[in-house]
Amino acid sequence: MTLSPVALRRTACAMVALLTLCLLIMVWQAVQQKESTLAIRSLNQGASVPDGFSILHHLDAHGIHFKSITPQDDVLLIKFDSRSQSAAAKEVLDRSLPRGYIIAQQDDESQAGIWLNRLRDSSHRLG
Hints:
The chain is of the alpha+beta class. It is built from four helices and four strands, in the order H-E-H-E-E-H-E-H. The longest helix is centred in the N-terminal third of the chain and has 28 residues.
């Protein structure tokens, strides 16, 4: 059974439309899934970072959910599902931690997000 040229063209157009839809869904998910991280450092070199348990207590008392708290070198990293959770946690920790700590917000990007940024930044080079 052979397909007529019209049916073949329709099948090809349907496949292209399906692939385009799948690509758009993947790009949308990559853009929407942004984790955010707070990094807590001590102002004084050699001073210890706050205890993860005390951070957990402060965030939990204010109803702020987080993914993880991880000590790394001289920094305490707290991962959140969204930037809004991270911003709320930063406000709470700015008020509750003693002076002498720097609390910096860092946005994490998925691998797809990194590629999208590379494509956006290099689009002027194409052509």
